[in-house]
């Protein structure tokens, strides 16, 4: 069904959003897209998930822009500022990649050309500006981007490898290579703050951050349990049961040890996650 659309799609080389500047991301051959035997219900399910991801990527543009503004005002290592501003630009490209995936699956009439709006960023009432800025970086990078990086890694492992993975695999690879960097900038900033002993109140603020970044997956899994489906995984859709398992493992094996390594007490997070049945 997507053949005519795919043929008429802009090539990455000719698309200013998908290939701008030195960090234009890897080329994605949209014209190679093959729908295969995907059933209608699966096509819609996968398409809607890419549409949701498109919106999340758009919101990440605003989130990184706000982080960059906050840290520019506070003052920080220029490398951190450079990575944050670059991340905002990466997320613009990610939004477009997710839009193209959604268009291939849902058809152009069912996908908006763009979203508008910025995320509502937690205010952390009562915290100093410096403590609030740290919490924003930790929530966005150490939590959200780290979860996303591991999730996309797992998604990629479930897709057909090499050329057989086709366009969806290229799209996920393109997203993944940036998301890993987006997580790293947070861990580097946190480590620097830990060395300076400027972590005030972070450990205690973590449970609420975890609810915002992980809670939705656990709620989704509980309300709509889904088994794995290779046909869906081939187009970048991981079912709710496996998604929840991936998030749980990431919390246990990456995030909790990461905070411990930075000298942030993991106890509030561990207690909270255990009470919720996430650990
Ligand atoms: Fe992204
Ligand atoms: Fe990202």
Q: How would you characterize the overall build of this protein?
A:
This protein has helices at 3-8, 40-74, 78-106, 129-158, 166-195, 202-223, 230-233, 240-261, 267-276. With 279 residues, the protein is mainly α. Helix 4 (129-158) runs parallel beside helix 6 and helix 6 (202-223) packs parallel to helix 9 (267-276). It is globular. The protein starts with a helix and ends with a helix. 38% of the residues are buried. Bound molecules: fe (ii) ion (2 copies). Residues 57, 60, 91, 94, 175, 179 line the site of one fe (ii) ion (FE2).
Provide a short characterization of the protein structure:
Helix content is 67%, strand content 0%. By secondary structure, the chain is mainly α. The longest helix has 35 residues, at 40-74.
């Amino acid at each position: 069904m997507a053949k005519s659309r795919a043929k008429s799609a802009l090539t990455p080389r000719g698309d200013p959003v998908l290939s701008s500047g030195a960090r234009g991301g890897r080329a994605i051959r949209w014209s190679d897209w093959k729908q295969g035997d995907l059933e209608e219900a699966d096509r819609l399910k996968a398409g809607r998930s890419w549409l949701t991801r498109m919106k999340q990527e758009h919101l990440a543009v605003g989130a990184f822009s706000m982080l960059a503004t906050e840290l520019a005002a506070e003052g920080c290592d220029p490398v951190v500022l450079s990575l944050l501003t670059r991340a905002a630009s990466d997320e613009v490209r990610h939004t477009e990649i997710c839009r193209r995936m959604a268009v291939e699956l849902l058809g152009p009439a069912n996908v908006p050309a763009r979203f508008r709006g910025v995320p509502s960023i937690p205010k952390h009432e009562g915290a100093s500006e410096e403590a609030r800025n740290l919490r924003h970086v930790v929530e966005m990078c150490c939590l959200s981007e780290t979860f996303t990086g591991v999730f996309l890694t797992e998604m990629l492992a479930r897709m057909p490898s090499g050329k057989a993975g086709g366009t969806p695999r290229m799209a996920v690879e393109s997203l993944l290579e940036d998301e890993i960097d987006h997580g790293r900038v947070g861990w580097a900033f946190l480590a620097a703050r830990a060395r300076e002993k400027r972590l005030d109140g972070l450990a205690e603020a973590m449970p609420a951050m975890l609810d915002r970044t992980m809670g939705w997956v656990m709620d989704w899994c509980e309300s709509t349990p889904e088994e794995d489906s290779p046909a869906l995984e081939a187009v970048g859709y991981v079912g709710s049961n496996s998604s929840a398992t991936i998030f749980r493992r990431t919390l246990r094996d990456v995030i909790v040890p990461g905070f411990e390594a930075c000298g942030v007490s993991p106890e509030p997070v561990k207690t909270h996650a255990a009470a919720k049945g996430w650990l």
